[in-house]
Amino acid sequence: MTKPFSARELVARVHVLLRRPRSGGLVQRSAHRIFGDLVIDPDAREVEVGGVLVDLTRTEFDVLDALSSQPRLAYSRRQLVDAVWGPDWVGDNRLVDVHVAHVRRKLGDDPASPRYVSTVRGVGYRMGTGR
User: pLDDT tens digits for 91-100?
Assistant: First the structure.
């Protein structure tokens, strides 16, 4: 507001601000993602399997977070690289396979019959149902 201003204008502007919806200072948090007994909490960056906390590295969590954000989507290796390392990253896309293998091992997921991270042949990976 520029000076000089009238008291009526100030009161009118305050009333307009008070009519706006307020969030109450709370930031909306994303919900936990649940796949059978696998629970992913993106805000806390925690993963539990059967109620037991799983210790994942930052990169492993980011790969799992990207896959679980859209569970029906089959991600190509390039899409996962872009989501986790950024679009400017240059290197072999097969590093995704290494990190997915680490995630599977830590979650106790069998690659032959995956419950949590499924391989989509010729494409990449997708979240499983957890069953």
Answer: 888 899 999 9
- The Cα 97–Cα 119 span in angstroms is 10
Amino acid at 43: D
Q: How far apart are CA 51 and CA 34, in angstroms?
A: 12
| Positions of the chain with pLDDT under 70 | 1-2, 17, 20-30
Is there a contact between 60 and 104 (Cβ–Cβ < 8 Å)? no
pLDDT digits (tens, 9 = 90+) for 65-83: 999 888 888 999 999 998 8
Classify 33-127 by CATH class: mainly alpha
Taking the C-alpha atoms of residue 105 and residue 116, their distance in angstroms, rounded to an integer, is 11
Bridge partners, residue 118, by sequence = 126
pTM (2 d.p.): 0.73
Q: Please, what is the Cα angle at 80 between 57 and 121, to 5 degrees?
A: 110
DSSP state, 117? Answer: E
